[in-house]
Amino acid sequence: MKMKKSTSPSATRSPLPPPLPQREAASCCATAFRAIRSGHVECLKGMNNEQLQERDQYHQTPLHIAAKLGNLEAIEKAYCSILMKRVPQTADVISVCGENASLLAAGEGQSKCVEYLLSDSMKRAMKRAMQRDINGTSVLMAAVARQDNDMALWLLRTFGKPLAMLQNNCRMLPLHVAASTGNIEFIRIATKYDSEMANYRDLFGCTPALYAVQGGYLTCLRYLIEKARSNISAVSDKGQSLLHVACLSGNAHIVRWLMQRSVPNAILWPTKDGANAVHCAAYSGSVVSLSILLESLHRKKRRVLLAIRDIRGNTPLHLAAINN
């Protein structure tokens, strides 16, 4: 009988090399960076504090690399001469990309490293957790982007509302990111930290609900509207409503749900380009969405609606032809 290959992460990850004998270790790794990447703890133990605080071309310390690789042995174990024991200040060093060690670990999914690096006093831990990189990504947003709910929910429980409301450079909250990936578990918990979070607008005027619509996540949308009280009539800076975005995305199941709950004239709302929901459905080529929009109208009203032009003079038929 043939044995099946294991598909677990631990089976595919190559093990770290075993520690070298003391004499060989002394001359094995020239830098702390090499010792970390090679898994040579003995080499690391024999280095002085200056070597352990060395910076690479990206202004990263050996602790950054250890956190990225998830090398808890180099960070945490009872080697009083290693990294956090000897040079704990490197946990607050910021790289060229604006990352400290905990943020780098979160981006790589190293949850144990994140928890260890943020297990300091609340004041210090909060400062580290609130660090953002050059794009404004926080440790919580990095965890949510990876859909790592174990890490994300631990961060929420530990640091609460200040971290949950920390936005990136596009003014997006972790909630926007969760909505865009359909992460209903995170949405349910995060929205309890602030009653206005569900209506928070990013740089483009988009609420989390709009991202849920764009991704086709009806369960997330329903929770945001029905439980978190997100405004179903909210529009983006381009004047696009949830219905416009649903039609553009071709998510017919969301179009139907919105039509059942929106005001009767929602189908006529124009964007800043003068396009209504029918224009959007025609442009996306979503026949099902188009039929849902038109099925409740009398034949005469349909003709009138299909003759409406946007600011470029296009009817829905023009847009359907333009997009083939």
TrEMBL record:
It comes from the Eukaryota. Residues 1-23 are annotated as: Disordered. Gene3D superfamilies: Ankyrin repeat-containing domain (1.25.40.20). SMART domains: ANK. SUPFAM superfamilies: Ankyrin repeat. Residues 1-13 have a biased composition (Polar residues). InterPro entries: Ankyrin_rpt, Ankyrin_rpt-contain_sf. It holds the Pfam family Ank_2. Keywords: ANK repeat, Repeat. This is ANK_REP_REGION domain-containing protein. It comes from Anisakis simplex (Herring worm).
